Structure formats: structure tokens, C-alpha cells
Amino acid sequence: MILSKEHELKWPEAGVTRLPGWLYSDPSIFAREQEHIFQGRSWAYLCLEEEIPAVGDYVVSRIGTVPVIAVRNADGIAALVNRCAHRGATICRQASGSAREFVCPYHQWAYGLDGALKRVPFQRGYNGQGGMPESFHPSAHGLQRLHVETRHGVAFASFADDMEPLEEYLGDAMLAYFDRVFDGRQLAILGHMHQRIPGNWKLMFENIKDPYHASLLHVFLVTFGLFRLDQESTVEMDPTGRHAALTSRKGEQTVNEATSAMRSFRADFKLQGQKLLDPVREFPGNATVVMQTIWPNLIVQQQSNTLAVRQIVPLDAGSFDLRWTFFGYADDDEAMRDRRLRQANLMGPAGFVSVDDSEVMLLCQQGLEIDAERDCVAEMGGDGVDDALHMVTETAIRAFYRYYREVMAL
Amino acid sequence: MIGNDTSPMPTAETARSIDWLYRAYAAALNDEAFERWPEFFVDDALYLVTTRENVAQNYPLGLIRCEDNAMRRDRVSAIRDTAMYVARPMRRSFANIVVTRTDGNVVDARADFIVLETFSREPTRLFVAGVSEDRIVMEPGGALFAERRCIIDSDVIPTSLIYPL
């Protein structure tokens, strides 16, 4: 990272149509984001319930920079910070597995699946010597435990003690989009993809809140009418602007006023493997693609029949991990499962569409780090933060940053 | 190349054919002769790139899944024409090629791979390492992949996977 000069963390006078360079490179901003956003008043995506179906099953997830064990116990799902209460060692050394308890390798302090401290070896000493004082109460030294809520197979966690219920947090409009994909049917996990992108984590949200770029950057989306600005489209948000959903209805590979203005439209480009794009309608309504962004770390992807949650894991100001979990439904037939697996070629670190995005975020970060004091422009569609019925707008980016400024006190 | 514990040592001719296949495959891709990529496969061969994590959990997902040569040619079109990416030469190296099973003219083999990538104005860096589990058929004209599964050790891909492994 290049911080060529001292800069003031003062938001530009123009408001959220201007985005200062230091948002993407300043370590103090990154630290404040951890405290105010990821460990603040938010419901962060934790995992899919189907990843841990049986009591004892766990995965180590990450909320912001904090590793969190998501484990199923007799009462449901617990979210436990992966840090021994004794000397701070990482307790769980595997990314996933099944356990009856969590035992720290250092001094073998043992924790139950609810995070409670069950055993401290030699707590009473040996031969009447040493040990913990009487005043030491194991009940006060469990693993740090987060609040958890689940809905239709998706688990969320929060560091805050005063969170509103998840449904209220999402708001009616966003809850309806969430329930469109997570409709209560049992999910079937198809697998993970995981990539490390040398860019600030907010670039990922900006990308999925920006319908304007899709018609220009992505040859695949444009040529095959998967997401293009001459199609019936919407940009919707919750009242706070922190969540958004971009929707569109599939169009045709035809030359018109819009596509002739898109350098990325190829009238003559044909796929040789036609099986890649044989979408089948499976959700109610006209939309064939809904990309939902949920504050502070989740993207829900429904593009044709490829479904995935993408978890944003910030690493430092200049890089983040994007972890994709692809899924279908337990009642999918073999043809639908195969269709989802083929359409996954569009997405992920090798995706026909998504490669363009990960590469462009790399380019953005390189440019943004040149000058922390120079502002970017987010003025497509004006300076408002309202919903839109078209794609030529950056309204959802502005709405995101309006809420971000509130939370970050900037 | 050697046979492993459960497989007899391949004949000298089989060994030479398999060795040639891996060498020619790596050379073609390292030279970025991607148009030749489908030529190393029988038409309906499955090509899959996945991770140890997915394999361990029996998840069928691939980062790249090509079910036939038409899908492989679409990947080549993306590299040549439709994808936006920062070009970085990639060098594949195959080692420890082992035949695990022989059945007539069909041979199962595995090989370790190490792949380096080089961005302009940057020193070369390791991109991925892993093992491929392959099925190879001995055709009159030479050996061809009937299936190739590249299993990457790390679950984390540095930025993007642009080119085939």
C-alpha cells in the first residue's frame, strides 16, 4: 500500500456522489470498520445450516477478521470466537469437521459445543500445590459467544447484544427477495469456490450494487442477454440503503439502440457448448436474475439456475477473500443438479462473467492506492439514493455509503 | 513413470505414450497454444478443476467444468476474445506421474502439478499446486485424456483462474 502523504479523514463536501481514496487504503479506516461494522450492530452471514447438519458438526467461518466456529449443538447453532480464553491460542485447527468438545492444544482447556469451559486440567493443583485460586470460576471463562439467528437454512451471527430480529433487519422488500431463493426447502450444497482478491472489500459490494458496469464490462452478460440495461430491470433497497437487490429479465441476442452502443455486445458470438446456457424458470415472477447484497458481508446470487452465497471476508485495507458456496435444493432432479453445475462456469474465480469483476477490482485497487486524497465519482442517475427501474444508475452505491457514513461516523 | 503398489508396471510403450501426453500438454499450454487444448482430449472427456476441500466433502462442484470439447473451445474463446483480464504467462510443471490402474487400452494415472504465474513488472509467484487424477486412452495416434480432474491443494485461488491447468 502507498500512503504518500498525510491525509485528513474528511468526507468530500459533495456527499456520497464522491468517494474519497482513503476509504480503500487507510488502515485506521479498516480498523474502524471492524469495530463499527463487523463487530457492530449487524447480522453477518455465518454459514449454511446444511454445512453442519449433525450435532457436533462445525465449520470455521469468519466475520470481518475474526475467526468464528459455527457449530451445531443440541439447541441449534452456536457461533464461538476461535480463541482460547486462557492464553488466546486458536482452538479449532481444522476448517471443518465434527467434534464432541473443543480442546485447546496448549493446556487442554476443554469447551463444550455451547462454548462453556468444561475442564481445566489441574484446576485444583497437584498434591495440594498450585492450581487455580478458589475465586476462579470456569463459568466466567467460556469462549466468546455471538448471537445467532437462522432463516430457511442460512445462519447469521452478531456481536451486538441489542440486535433487532433478522427479519426486521432485512426489511420487508429484502426479506421477500431472500425468501425467493431460501423458500424453506432443504438446500443441497454443491461445493465451494474461494478466491483472494487484492482489493478493498467494499469494491465487491460496489460491484454488485452497480448495474451500470454489467452492460459494459461483461461480454457474456451483454451478448446473451443475461443482465443488460435494455432489459426490464430494477434496483431496490431497504429503507436504510444498506441492503439492495438488482433484478433483471433475460433478453435476446439482438442488435438494438442499446446493444449497438455496447462495445461488449457481439451479435455473431455463439457458444459451442450450448448446454452451458439452457436456463429453466424455477422462481416466481419475471426476474431471471436477482443479485442481493446484505450488509455487512453477504451476496446472494441467483443468475439463471446458478445459486450461491458469496461471503466477503476482509483481510486488510487492500485485500479480501471471497468465499462462494454453491447450492441447489435437496429435491432437485439430476438434470437440474447438472444444469447448476454447468452454469457454475459463469461464476467464481474462473467464471466466464466473474473473472471480469475480480480482475477489475484488482485494477481499481491499484489505481485507488495511487492517491488517498483523490475522490472517485458515483453520480450516475444523479445524487439520490432512491430505488430505480433501470440500470443506468449508481444509486445503490450511494445508498450503501450514506449508511456507511452513519455507522462509521464519517 | 512407475506403477504403484496396486498396479503392475506399465509396458514401456504405454509409459512412453503417457509421458509424451503430459509433456506435450504442458508444452502446448505453456506456449499459450490454447487452440490446441481440446486436441489432447477425446471429445466427451470431462475436464474439472476443483479443490481438495471439495473432494474431501464429496462436493461435485468444479471451478471449471467442461463436459466435452465444445465447452473446452468456449473456454478458449473466453481467453482469446470475451474475458477481461490482466494477461500473465503461466507455467505448468508435471511431476511424479504414476499409473494407478490399467484396463486394456485405458490407463488411470495421477501427476503432481505446480503452476507459476508472472505478472508484468512483478517477480514470478506460485499460483497453485495439486494433483491431477486422469483417465487416459491409448488411441492409434497416441494417448488422449478421457477424463482429467485437477485437484488444487489450497482452497484459495489467488485472484482469478484464467487459463486451463
Structure, explained:
The complex is a heterodimer of chains A (410) and B (165). Chain A is 21% helix and 27% strand. Chain A has 8 helices and 19 strands. In chain A, strands 2-11-10-5-4-3-6 form a 7-stranded antiparallel beta sheet, with no helix packed on it. A 7-stranded antiparallel beta sheet of chain A has the order 12-18-17-16-15-14-13, with helices on both faces. Chain A is globular and about 90 Å long. The two termini of chain A are 22 Å apart. The relative contact order of chain A is 0.17. In chain B, 23% of the residues lie in helices and 42% in strands. Chain B has helices at 12-30, 52-56, 69-82; strands at 2-3, 41-51, 64-66, 90-103, 106-117, 125-139, 142-152, 157-158. Chain B has a 7-stranded mixed beta sheet. The chains are: A alpha+beta (410), B alpha/beta (165). Strand 12 of chain A pairs parallel with strand 8 of chain B.
List the helices and strands and how they pair.
The complex is a heterodimer of chains A (410) and B (165).
Chain A: E1 18-20, H1 27-38, E2 44-48, E3 57-63, E4 66-73, E5 76-81, E6 96-98, E7 102-103, E8 110-111, E9 117-119, E10 145-151, E11 154-158, H2 166-181, E12 187-197, H3 201-208, H4 211-217, H5 219-223, E13 233-237, E14 244-248, E15 289-294, E16 298-303, E17 306-316, E18 319-329, H6 334-343, H7 354-368, E19 375-377, H8 395-408
Antiparallel strand pairs in A: 1-19, 2-11, 3-4, 3-6, 4-5, 5-10, 7-8, 8-9, 10-11, 12-18, 13-14, 14-15, 15-16, 16-17, 17-18
Chain B: E1 2-3, H1 12-30, E2 41-51, H2 52-56, E3 64-66, H3 69-82, E4 90-103, E5 106-117, E6 125-139, E7 142-152, E8 157-158
Parallel strand pairs in B: 1-4, 2-7
Antiparallel strand pairs in B: 2-3, 4-5, 5-6, 6-7
